[in-house]
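Notebook B, p. 112. Complex prediction, attempt 2.
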Amino acid sequence: MKPARFAHHAPRTLEEALALLATHGEEARVLAGGQSLVPTMAFRMARPAVLVDINRIAPLDHVTVAGGSLRIGALARHARFETQVVEGALGTLLARIAHHIAHPPLRLRGTFCGSLAHADPASEWCAAALALEARMVLARADGLREVAAEDWFQGVFSTALAPGEMLREVVLPLPAPSWRGGFAEFARRAGDFALAMAVVGLRLEGGLVGGARIALGGIGGQPVLAREAMALLEGQAPSSALLDEAAATAARHCDPQEDMHAPAEYRRELVAVMVKRALRQAVSA
Amino acid sequence: MTEVRFTVNGTAQCVEVEPRLTLADMLREECGLTGTHLGCEHGVCGACTVLMDGLPVRSCLVFGVQAEGAEIRTVEGLAAADGTLNVLQRAFQAQHGLQCGFCTPGFLMLATWLLEQKEGVDEARLREVLASNLCRCTGYQNILAAVRVAAQEIRVWREG
């Protein structure tokens, strides 16, 4: 339970950090909150030769509204989202989700961007990123690129991040005033990894659903969109029967995995319940 | 080896450590402060909780080198210099908030942070925060009671 040897660098600027990542490439990992990376290192499932510790780069600790988006810096901790970081339904949804992430000490240290970079299948922020159409801003020594959430996740603990890159910021587009969000998850104990979760977002205009997005997490290698259920809701009035049908559709079309915590069919039933709860929360908000 | 300067319970420390040494092991092995206990060593149990710059951290999930310039508080800093227990420690004793005592330093430091929050403590917050740590003996009820009693004694308890 002791990590393997590594070299520790604690740069003071983003430029220094990116230079270190460029030099060390695949050997290096970014250390932000460390609440997932350090346990992985303790188990020696990860053995980075170099850690680039970004905790002393103060400008990365931001959550700001700019250009119609919420921009979340690499050092923004989970706990920051427990109180509304932005007015309206988006801030409310992020706060609701934040309260379900692990436990208070872990939320004070772990980071939003770190969760997306680690890409745990049961990460709440990963499912949220998919539902909220997040864009990942990846910085490297010689430039920037953006990756949409739908292209970011590439299986268990795997993302589109390339060697030499840092997930510098996650950008969430600010939704329309008619937008509402919902979140539900099921875990056996408070703070445990969820066995299933749903994050939904939709617009309610003239009594009809538009732009519905439903992301499922905790059921497989990576968060997925429940596309059939999303299509079913489009342009419809959100009656109780319709929400039930959407939830059943999401459950029927998803591909839950079996593991030591739950059989696949149990997870499928949980998906139906979580989607139903999240949808009801959204339309009644 | 890296030189790390920090304070523990107000006392300046300067040690040389490998980067892979956790804060928990640094406190125990380099500073001789073995009150901080290591249960799981991967962030689940919370026995190693200490306060770093005023915030509770699992000291098995922070590397010692990351404590450069930090103020660390451990269970050794709770009692007075003559050994007189503080309010929280007395409450743990009076309410039977411990049996084997292994998890106690972590619970004490977690609760120390909770009681210092300016918004005070109510039952929901008490349960949310104390759910962070594991105890294999008490069944938790007496730990909850101890922190509740301490909060009432220092007048930060809020009826929910």
